Amino acid sequence: MSSHHLPYLVNCSIMFTELPLSQRAAAAKAAGFEAVEFWWPFAGPVPRQTEIDAFTRSVRDAGVRLVGLNFFAGDLAGPDCGVLSIPARSAEFRDNVDVTVGIGADLGAAAFNALYGNRVDEARPEQQDELATENLVFAAKAAEAAGATVLVEPVSGPKPYPLRTAAEAVAVVDRVRAVGAGNIGFLCDLYHLATNGDDVDAAIDRYADRVAHVQIADAPGRGEPGTGSLDLDRPLAALEAKGYRGWVGLEYKPSTGDTLASLAWLPRERRTTP
Q1: Which among 105, 77, 71 is positioned nearest to 90, based on CA atoms?
Q2: pTM for the whole thing?
Q3: Which structural domains are found in the chain, ordered by start?
Q4: Stretch 172-199: mean pLDDT
Q5: Is the predicted pLDDT of residue 165 greater than 90, yes or no?
Q6: Which of 26, 51, 106, 141 could form a disulfide with 47 if both were Cys (CB 3.0 to 4.6 A apart)?
Q7: Kindly report the CA angle at 59 between 45 and 48, in degrees rounded to 5?
């Protein structure tokens, strides 16, 4: 039995992918969840209004709350991992901000995940970091009008993504807060931190006050809890003990491709707010 009382939600961009995008929020509701999150669900930074309407309708009609949404981050399945720190792509991010915040405000989202972007040859790291700070302040001001928070996340994998540890992500959060945007926080993704070899317990001990959202998957493999060797319960209990009262996003790849079967570890009563 888990030793924490934090509520879980489903990331419908990595789970329920056996269904079309328009049916995933309803599938999450049918599985007993009352909240969902998505990566950016469209191909480009500024989709057609008909696409936006279809997406928001699918969430609203499902009767779930959209808690989190990613800003446009390029082709996550391909070479990209965000665009906001890349000079040649900065305009794509800025063009996307109002669209993302608009969707989120419409559906009650509390948080918008801003993937930082890879290092590129055509700019020095310091230039990319300066641009990232400007764009994160820009995004945070837009999110503030909707009463929401911008998230910064460490990511694992082979891409040249500079934020790998809790300390690196929190340094960005603190940099943006220092120039006056207080509504920015650390997205504590336990899978990415563990995969990158970060000390998860130490990260929570040190940075719990900056944590604005939590995501989990087991490691190695990024499957559901129990498919790897990562003790997820201990850090979640530690976060709760340190005062975290937000959601825990299930951001894993169901090991058999069957999302419902992959949820057997989670009693139905844990899929709603206590």
Answers
A1: 71
A2: 0.98
A3: 8-262 (3.20.20.150)
A4: 98
A5: yes
A6: 51
A7: 30
